[in-house]
Amino acid sequence: MTTRRLLLGAALALPALPLRAQELPRSITLISPFGAGTVIDIMARAFAEPFRQALGGNVAVVVMNREGAGGTIGTAAVAQARPDGAVLGFGPSGMMTVQPFMVPSLPYRLDSVMPLCQTFENIFALAVPGNSPHRTLADFLAAARTRPEGLSFGHAGNGTVGHLIVRQLELMANVRLSDVAYRAGGQMMVDAQNGTLAMAVTTWATLRDSGLRVLAIAADQRDPAIDAPTLTELGFPVTWRGFGGLYAPRGLPASLAQRIEAACLEATRSDAYGSVMRSTSQVVAPLSATDFSARLVAEQREAQSMLDRLGLIPR
Questions:
Q1: What does the CA dihedral 107, 100, 33, 197 come to, rounded to 10 degrees?
Q2: pLDDT, tens only, 247-294
Q3: Smaller CB count within 10 Å for the chain: N or C?
Q4: Whether the model pTM is above 0.85
């Protein structure tokens, strides 16, 4: 009887590990809310393989681009997916913290998703065509003051980091520019290079080797790889920053969320991810689910206040 009880106890204990393994889906679709070849897409693809390995190597991880509407199309697809781990999002914070204020009809809010792990920060820069007459940001702003809305700037969509950086700058510098939203970052770069745009605002990784002249960067301190001052140095303490990571539909089981969070953090420490991040001038900046969530909530509060000042919240 004792032996049978021991065997039964062992049999009941054994399924714990296999059941834990079965929590993971066979395949995970990692939705990138911007187009192929963009910085977010490059980071997502660099992350996918070390993430797969960190999950144990038996799960396929496929990156899918769902671009459009400033990233909200892809984010909505994640928020509306089944919370079983088969669909996750990889991208910047603004679609969750900013866009719901600007577009009340969006089918999601910040609490529609579950932050799992911050994976990156990125440096945004303001750049003009190589043959632009504006050699410095002061030159550009002086010209803008004489021609309200006469100079244009391109960005990835209303409410994105680049857009809000310039909107903050406009308030501080007392200028008004004409903004042009682009669904495809490649077209924005073409227009900036040929002078159709007076200025492009995007990540340094996108601008590097583009032939554009960087006037300033939105960062806490200078970057040795970029020959340009920070906006704060120039007297414009713009606060908006680029950061983001991995998130899931709200309702993901806690045990599965913890497992994915651990794999996410492990993937950010991998040589493969770090190498691509360095080569594209991105910053590896891992944060736990708790800390990532707290940062998103703080940005949401700041976004509401700033968008209200800018008149960007529909009434």
A1: 130
A2: 999 999 999 999 999 999 999 999 999 999 988 888 899 999 999 999
A3: C
A4: no
**Cα torsion angle, 155, 159, 161, 166, sign:** positive
Q: Does pLDDT of 159 surpass 70?
A: yes
Phi-psi region of 174 (alpha: psi -120 to 50; beta: other; left: phi over 0): left
Which domains does the chain carry? 2-121+242-310 (3.40.190.150), 124-218 (3.40.190.10)
CB atoms within 10 A of CB 84: 15
22 C-beta neighbours (distance < 10 Å), count: 10
87 φ/ψ angles, rounded to the nearest 5 degrees: -130, 125
Determine the Cα–Cα distance for residues 178 and 113; give it in Å rounded to an integer: 33
pLDDT for residue 12 is more than 60? no
170-202 as b/e: b if 16+ CB within 10 A = beebebebebebbebbeebbebbbeeebbbbbb
Matching residue, tokens 């914070």:
93
